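**Backbone geometry record:**
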Amino acid sequence: MERKIRKLLADASETKDPRALESAFALMKSSAAARACRNLPDMYVVCAETALQLGCVETGAACLKMYFEWNPPENLLTCRALLAQGQLKGDFKEAAVCFLKAVEISKKEPRYHFMVFNASVLYLKAAHPLLHPNKCFHVVPSLKQMVQSLEEVAEQDYSWRAELIMHLVRCLVDSGQLEEAASYAKIKEDFFKTHTPQKYPELYKLMIKHQLLDDDLLLKASCQNTMLAVIYKMEKLKMCSSWLENGNLLTEDLQKLEEIFYLLMECRQTTTTPVKDINPQIPTPLLPSQRTWSRA
């Protein structure tokens, strides 16, 4: 029976056949009633994951309900079930609770640390509709926990961590927590300079735009290389000029734009690095879609 169920689930996943999925689920329910299969919990989770792939929400929810009725232990299988459950939730906060439960279990066992990354990928996908002005405050508490968890397990995909940090800074700003945003950006500045220097200009631009750091320090940072100087001058020009609204360029604005133009030309002619003292051995990270479920 177990072999037949697994074969149907494999066929459903490979051929995207909902009928094979429903046949497998029917056999699983029969086996549960007859207590004829010892590995049903494992197959419940596989069935739920396959149901998600095929868009069979009701079947996926039913599989997970049956799985959790077994009072499963806090292991890798339960983490997978929680991630599947989170994807089935229509409410972001409920989904975040599921993802963070999986994270807390995963952090306890080094072998499961890769699941923290997987949870963060699914979390950000669920959070995406809220990453817009006047909605970000819904995301801040759970996003803080997710970023902190990736740090706690020493996730090596620094580019991915930097992306989440940037989202958190933006969310803090949008929710009016400017002091915390400034403090957090300052704390994480060294992380960007050391691990993701290619993303530092993005953080630097945010700090200028929202005045998250003293202007003297921002100006000093702009002296490190040409690209930062371009960002500083461009952001200051946008902040101080009215030409963006009325379309009338002042002589002073034209001079500033000319300075920026020549700096950009210099950027093309010389090879520069975003910040000093960067690590040239940073590996190219895998895309999140390539890593989800990839580590065992």
